[in-house]
Amino acid sequence: MRTETEIGYNTKIEGDVVVTTVDAALNWFRKNSVWPMPMGLACCAIELMAAGASRFDISRFGSEVMRFSPRQADCMIVAGTVTYKMALAVRRIWDQMPEPKWCIAMGACASTGGMYRSYAVLQGVDNILPVDIYVSGCPPRPEALLDALIKLQNKISREPVLKKLTIANLKKEAA
Amino acid sequence: MNTPVEMATALETANQLKAKFGDLLSEPAVFRGDVTLRVADAERIAEVCRCAKNDLGFNYLVDISSVDHYGEDPRWTVVYHLRCLPRGVELRLKTDVSEEKSELPSVVGVWATANWHEREIYDMMGIRFRGHPDLRRILMWEGYPYFPLRKDFPLAGKPTDLPGVAFTRPAPLEGGPFVTMPGGKDAIEREPRVRTPED
């Protein structure tokens, strides 16, 4: 059975020993260094840059390492309008990112197509890849993106890593 | 837009061009300082453009655009915006193309910049340019079956599927498109509202 008890650490009782679960430890590593893949496609990318710069400073949450190679990134931030033509490239880059990976749809266009109700624009990037967090706004303020990042960190910290690995291994053995 | 002095020069230049080609070109039409010449035969547009560049100094092709007169014949008008950078003079050339033909000579040989302009017109309107070195789609992908800027193409788009390459679905318009009324007397009247083409 899963319990929701907070695992605390008291130096006086436990000395140099920290008790935790493997899941909690792995998730702690993962959530505090989410390397983003900046998929900047429109004006949202400017706000994404602002979130990365000194005033809003995304590095307070461990995500300052913007990787322009999908093979080194954990979280794709889709910032801007995804046209059908660009959708091919977005999907390809997503496929090139190694597991585990997450996706933030930043702004109205990436989430739903936004104001572009037209033949040229994909009506939400969730048509082609799984999105973890949607950010509203046109474009969203950098604070909104940071809030999305914190929400993503909370989501990561609840992931059953070992269970997923076990299932994956079982599937491999069966195949 | 031309200033009055430039307009006089533009008119003079247009008349020089007209003197060379005679009945092929219309009388220069002036509207708000812009000078327009209509070319009667679209097949000779490249010839007129070459003369405008080499003899009259229109060394810059600003833009090529196309107009869809849906339901009329000829259906297409192709518009060339020419500029002479040393003198600051602008000239517009228009030529009609019928729907059955939907083809005219390319001007890439005159101005290399026409390459992408012509590709865009081909992509959006489906008008072909004969002699273009690389007439592919530029904004939509290869294999997209429609020409989306034509008047008979819905704003929301049509469903298409090219398995493994791309797909499109009609966009939800939610009762739109919503159009503003620029002439409204107050902000309430100018609010974006649903407007059907009959209004």
What does this 3D model show about the protein?
The complex is a heterodimer of chains A (175) and B (199). Chain A is built from 7 helices and 4 strands. The model of chain A has no long low-confidence stretch (mean pLDDT 88). With 175 residues, chain A is an alpha/beta fold. In chain A, β1 (36-40), α3 and β2 form a beta-alpha-beta unit. Helices cover 41% and strands 10% of the residues of chain A. The longest helix of chain A is centred in the last third of the chain and has 16 residues, at 142-157. Chain A has one domain (35-174): Rossmann fold, CATH 3.40.50. The radius of gyration of chain A is 18 Å and the shape is globular. Chain B has 199 residues and is of the alpha+beta class. Chain B has helices spanning 4-21, 45-54, 114-125, 187-190, and strands at residues 29-31, 34-39, 60-68, 76-84, 89-97, 103-105, 128-130, 160-162, 166-168, 178-179, 193-194. Chain B has a 5-stranded mixed β-sheet. A two-stranded parallel sheet of chain B has the order 6-7. In chain B, β1 and β2 (34-39) form a beta hairpin. Chains A and B meet through α4 of A and β9 of B.
